[in-house]
Amino acid sequence: MISLKVNGKTHSVDVAPDTPLLWVLREQLGLTGAKYGCGISICGACTVHINGEAVRSCVTTAKDAQGKEIVTIEGLSPDSSHPIQKAWAALDVPQCGYCQPGMIMAAAALLKKKPKPTDADIDTEMTNVCRCGTYQRVRAGIHLAAKNGRT
Amino acid sequence: MTDSMISANPLAIDRRRFLAGSAAAGAGFALGFHLPGIDPAEAQKAGSVPEVNAWVVIHPDDTVVVRIARSEMGQGTLTGLAQLVADELDCDWSKVTTEYPTPGENHRRKRVWGDMSTGGSRGLRQSVTYVRQGGATARAMLIAAAAKRWGVPAGECTAADSVVAHKASGKTLRYGELAAEAAKMPVPTGVKVKPQSAWKIIGKPVKRLDTAEKLNGKQIYGTDLAMPGMLSAAIKACPVFGGKLKSFDADKIKAMPGVRHVLKVGDNAVAVVATGWWQAKTALDKLPITWDEGPNAKVSSASIADFLKEGLTAKDVIVAAKKGDVAAAAKAGKTIEATYDTPFLHHVTMEPMNCTAKVTADRCEVWVPTQNGEAALAAAVKASGLPIDKCEVYKLHLGGGFGRRGAFQDYVTQAVLLAKQLPGTPVKLVWSREEDMAHGFYRPITMCKLTGSLDKDGNLAGLHMRLSGMSILHQHFSHRLSGGMDRLFFQGLLGDELGYDIPNLLVDHALRQTHVPVGFWRGVNHNQNAVYKECFLDELAHLAGKDPVDFRRKLLAKAPKHLAVLEAAVKKAEWGKPLPAGVHRGVCVQAGFGSYAAAIAEVSVSARGRLKVHRVVCAIDCGTACNPDQIAAQTEGAIAYGLHATIYGENTIKAGRVVEGNFDTYEMMRIDEMPHVDTVLVPSGGFWGGIGEPLTPLLAPAVLNGIFAATGKRVRTLPLKNVDLKRA
Question: In the predicted model, what is the mean pLDDT of residues B350-377?
C-alpha cells in the first residue's frame, strides 16, 4: 500500500510502487483532470504540484510522491477562484481544453515563483504543449493573473 | 465478464448522469451528457421536460437547452450554434446551456438535426439556416402558447429575454411557464428569421459556454470516462500499413498485474485488456508479437519521393484547369521553373484516439469523442453486426480533432470488435501516443513543379502547376470523385478560390498513390497548394522586380473579396513601412471553406540561421461573423498549428511504417515560438464562411516569403527543421 496526500486528503492505494502518479490519480483516485498526452514528460498535460512545484506526473512514481503535498487541478481552488483560473475565464483561454489542466497548474506554479513574470520567464517556464494553439491567450492570461493577484 | 467487476475508480461516474438530460420528446431517451449549471439529480428529473421543438428544450426555471448536432473540439462551434438559436428564440443568454442529441436519435427521427459531421469548417455555415429557423419556430410557438392562454392575437404579443409580453394588458409570462404548452402548439412553417440589424446575440463576442469545466478538471473527455465494471485496453496494430497480425504469445504477460485478456482485434491488431490502462499498456509493451508486414514493408520516404518526382514530368495527368496556352506564353517573355514539396503530416490531437464500447447480444453502445457521430454509429453497426436501431453512440467532448476524428472512425471499429469479445463489459480503448502517431490519416504528400512566365511589362502571363502525389478521395472516397477528378485535391487553385486572373493557366495532377493512409488535416489540401501558389507568385514578383503585394493586387483586380482581405492585412501590418533591423515581411492570400483570408508574417533569421516569427497579421472575410472573439481564437490557433507544421511537422516512412513515435521524435512547438497574432475581421456580409480551417494554410507561405525577404533564400521544401537558413 502506498499513502498519498492529494488535495489535502490522505489516500491509501494498492498499486505497484513504480506506477506513475498520473495513473494513480486518474484510475485509483478518480481525479481525471491531469491528462495523458505523451507519457514521457514532454507535453505537460499531466502537470500537478508536488510540494508547490509543477511536476510531470506521468514520470513521477507513486513511491516518489509519498509523503509529499500533491495538488491537482481539482484542488487548485475550491471554486475556480485562483487568479489563473479567473484570468483564463476572462480571456476564454481554453479551446478543446485537454491540455489546460496542465497548462493552468504550470502557470499557477510560475506565478508562485515569480509573481510578475516577464515574457521571457513565460517562454522559459511554460513548456506545456497545446495543439489548439492557445499560447497567445495563455501568455495574456498569465499577465492578467499577475496584475490582478490573489483576491 | 460482468458488471460485478467493478472499476477500481471510486469516483466512477454513474452512467445515468452521463445519459441524463433533456429527453427528446416521444423517444423516452435521455440524450444530454452533462448540463452545465444543473446538478445531476436535477438533470435526471429533466427527462420529463418536453422539447419545444428539436432544437430547444426549456425547463420550468427558464433554463434553455439548445441541441447541438455538430461536435465541439475546441473550435467554438457549440457556442456559435447556440448563439444562432438563442438569438432567434429571443431568450435570456445567461440561461442558455447545450446538449448533444445522439446519432441514433437523429436516425430514429429521420435526421431532424441534419448532418452531424463536423469537418470542412461546415459547423456553422452549413447549418445556419435551419438552426436559426429552429430557434425562430420555437419562439413563435412560445408566443402562440401565451396568446392562447391570454385569449389575444399572437400578433399583439412580443418576446424578449425569455419573456412573452402583451403590451395592451401588461401581461407577461416567462418561457419556463410556457414551454409545456408551447410544445403542444401546431408547428408553424416558414417563420421568418430576424434581419441582421435585429441581432442581439449573433455577432457578439459572447463568452464560450464550455469554459468553466475546462478550468477545474471537471470536463470529461473520452479518456476520462469511467463506468461500473469497465476495463481498459491498450492496442497495437501492425506498424506497416496494410500488414496483418500473425501471432502473439499471451502467456508471457498473462500474469502481469491487472491483465485480464489478450485479444486479437480485426486482422491486424492485438489488445491487452486490464483493470487499468497503465497496466494494459505496460503489459502490451512486453507482449511478443509477430506481424505479417506484407509487401508495403519495402516502401520508404526515398522510394515515395522518387515515385512523386516521376509524376512531375509524366504524361498520365488529370487536367483540372486549362485556359489559354501556357506554352505560348512561356515563349513571349521571361520564364522560371521551380519545384516544391510538402510532407506527410499527422494531426497530433492532444487527446489520443480512444473509444469506449459495451456490446451485448442485442445492444451496442459507444462513447466516443468524434467529429462525426453518424460515421461513428455506422462503424458501430458494421463492427457489432447489429441493426442500427440496436446501436447507439454518445458523443463526448473532443480533446482536439483537426480532421483526425471525422471521416475515419477506426478507433470505434476497434473498440466494438474488442468489446464484442467481452459481452456486457464496457471496454475503454485508449491509444498510446506512439500508436496514435503510427496510425494516422496523414496530410497527403505532394510535390509541385511550377512554370511561370511574365509578359514584357512584367505581368504574369502564364502559369503551369504540375502537381504530383496523393489524393484523399482517390484513396478512400471514389464515389466523391467528379469525372475521375478529386476536386478537393486542387483546393485554392481553381476558379473562385484562386481569385488571381491569370491569362494562361494549366493545373494538372499526376496521381501517385502510396500505401500510407491520407486524410483531412485542418485546412486539407489548401495547405500544400497555398505553399506552391503563394511562394511561386513571390518568385515571379521578384523576377518582375515588383513588390509582392503590388504584383498580387494587379492579379486580383477581378476578385474584390480577395483584394479586400489583402488590403486589410496590408493596412494593419503597415506593409512598406520599415520594421526593426533584420525583421522582414512575407505575404499570402488564400480563399477556402467559403472564406477569404490574407496574412502578413514578420520574420527574422539570425546569423546562425535561427528563425523567429514575431507577428502575424491575419485578415479574414467570413461573410458574417457570429462571434468575433472566437474567430480571433481560431485565427491564433490556426497560426500556431500552421507554424508547427512549417517548422517541425513531418512524418517520414521507413520499412513501410511511420518513423516518428512520441514527442521525443516528433518535436512540438511551445509558447516561446508563438508569434503575436493580430486578427482583422472584414466581414463583407451576405454569406457565411468557415473559420476553423481557412487560416491554417496562410502561415507557411507567409513565413517562407518572409524568409526570402530576410535572407534571399527560397525555401521550397518543408519542414524548416531540415533546412539550413544561414545566409550563404
Answer: 98
Exposure of B473 by Cβ count < 10 A (0-12 exposed, 13-18 middle, 19+ buried)?
middle
SS3 A136: helix
Residue from the list B226, B637, B668 with its beta carbon closest to the beta carbon of A42: B668
Taking only the tens place, the pLDDT of each residue in B96-119 is: 999 999 999 999 999 999 999 998
How far are the Cα atoms of A82, B120, B193, B421 from residue B632, in angstroms, in the given order?
25, 18, 27, 47
A39/B662 Cβ within 8 A: yes
Are the C-beta atoms of residues B71 and B401 closer than 8 Å to each other?
A: yes
Q: What is the pLDDT of residue A150?
A: 57
- Cβ-Cβ contacts under 8 Å, A127 against chain B: 670
Residue A39 sits at the chain B interface (C-beta within 8 Å): yes
CB contact under 8 A, A19 and B669: no
Mutate to test the interface with A, among B79, B118, B211, B613 (most CBs of A within 10 A): B211
Does B521 lie at the interface with A, CB-CB under 8 angstroms? no
Please determine, for residue B123, whether its predicted confidence score (pLDDT) is greater than 90. Answer: no
- What per-residue confidence (pLDDT) applies to B530? 98
Lookup: cell for B241:
500499413
Measure in Å the smallest separation between the Cα of B522 and chain A Cα atoms. Answer: 11
Here the ipTM equals 0.98
- Interface contact A135-B12, CB threshold 8 A: no
Burial of B28 from C-beta contacts in 10 A (0-12 / 13-18 / 19+): exposed
Instruction: Give the whole-angstrom CA distance, residue A37 versus residue A142.
Output: 23
d(CA A93, CA B341): 35
- For chain A, which residues score pLDDT lower than 70? 150-151
Kindly state whether B248 is in contact with chain A, defined as any CB-CB distance less than 8 angstroms. no
Give the pTM: 0.94
Distance to chain B for A11, nearest Cα, Å: 12
- The per-residue pLDDT for range B468-525, each reduced to its tens digit, is 999 999 999 999 999 999 999 999 999 999 999 999 999 999 999 999 999 999 999 9
